[in-house]
Write a structure and sequence with these properties.
GO terms for molecular function: hydrolase activity. The chain has 287 residues and is an alpha/beta fold. It has one domain: Alpha/Beta hydrolase fold, catalytic domain (Rossmann fold, 3-Layer(aba) Sandwich), CATH 3.40.50.1820. The protein is built from 9 helices and 9 strands.
Length: 287
């Protein structure tokens, strides 16, 4: 009888231990699932629409210039890469892919075959792309330009505004764009943001002369890089050039903001590889 009771005691103890182990396993499983839940919550925080975002590379740019950023956004379900448009030197388009018209924040990457041509030709090519998209039933787009791509995009706006035969620009972002060329200046960033540039390159004067063409309800975001506390540039473009149009556009009435990134990842050609820049762009476009 004692043996039977003792056996029952050991069996009860074993079942109790198994039960505890099972509880711990469930707790671990729950903990492992929580990051996925957070990711899902972050996805839901984004506004999804069928408005495409058009990415314009800088001087000498290639498919890699915005390729990494678009891929990172795609991996995070923030966008869906749907179209690659290559503009030939004669203005003809080679189009790969098709817009689904789904609410997936689609991306359109634009490449210039003559990737070292001048900004006036690039402006015309941007117009050609936006006219093509309008013909495809795209009413509006977001526009993101790095370096000379930002320069040409703003030149498009100051030259044409929002023409009826082209997709309307919904939001505009420039990344490290030399809006006042590479003109040296001793003006502080604070003065430039408050009053604009005193030393004006011809490019900036063109912007001033065409500012009335820019819709004053167009939201604009300027991104700039600063290598370190002693260097007021991203290694290529001075801060007071990347932010030169802030005062001009603000006085025009545009909702405008800017952000300065600091460190090695804020180097000119690394700005579009910087995950902090990724997040700032995603917040401005889709949050």
């Amino acid at each position: 009888m004692k043996k039977i009771i003792l056996s029952l005691f050991f069996m009860t103890a074993i079942f109790a231990l198994i039960g505890c182990g099972s509880g711990e396993s469930k707790q671990t499983e729950k903990t492992e699932k929580s990051p996925a839940a957070a990711t899902s919550k972050e996805k839901n925080a984004l506004t999804k629409s069928a408005v495409p975002t058009v990415f314009i590379h800088g001087y000498g740019g290639t498919v890699n210039s915005f390729g990494g950023m678009i891929q990172r956004f795609s991996n995070e379900w923030k966008t869906k890469k749907e179209m690659l448009i290559t503009v030939q030197a004669d203005g003809t388009l080679t189009v790969d892919g098709q817009l689904s018209k789904e609410k997936s924040n689609p991306s359109v990457q634009v490449l210039f075959a003559a990737n070292k041509d001048n900004e006036w030709n690039q402006t015309e090519w941007i117009y050609t792309v936006l006219k093509y998209l309008k013909q495809q039933g795209v009413a509006q787009v977001n526009l993101v330009g790095h370096s000379m791509g930002g320069v040409s995009s703003l030149r498009y706006l100051t030259t044409y505004g929002q023409p009826s035969d082209a997709s309307k620009i919904n939001k505009f972002i420039s990344i490290g764009a030399p809006f006042n060329d590479f003109t040296e200046s001793s003006e502080s960033i604070e003065d430039v943001l408050k009053s604009g540039r005193e030393t004006k390159a011809s490019r900036y004067v063109d912007y001033e002369n065409g500012i009335s063409n820019v819709p004053n309800d167009l939201p604009i975001f300027l991104v700039a890089g600063k290598l370190d506390e002693k260097t007021d540039s991203d290694g290529t473009v001075p801060l007071n050039s990347a932010l030169a149009t802030y005062s001009l556009l603000k006085d025009h009435g545009n909702p405008i903001s800017y952000q300065i990134f600091t460190g090695s990842n804020a180097q000119h050609s690394q700005l579009h590889e910087n995950t902090g820049v990724d997040q700032a762009i995603a917040n401005f476009l889709w949050k």
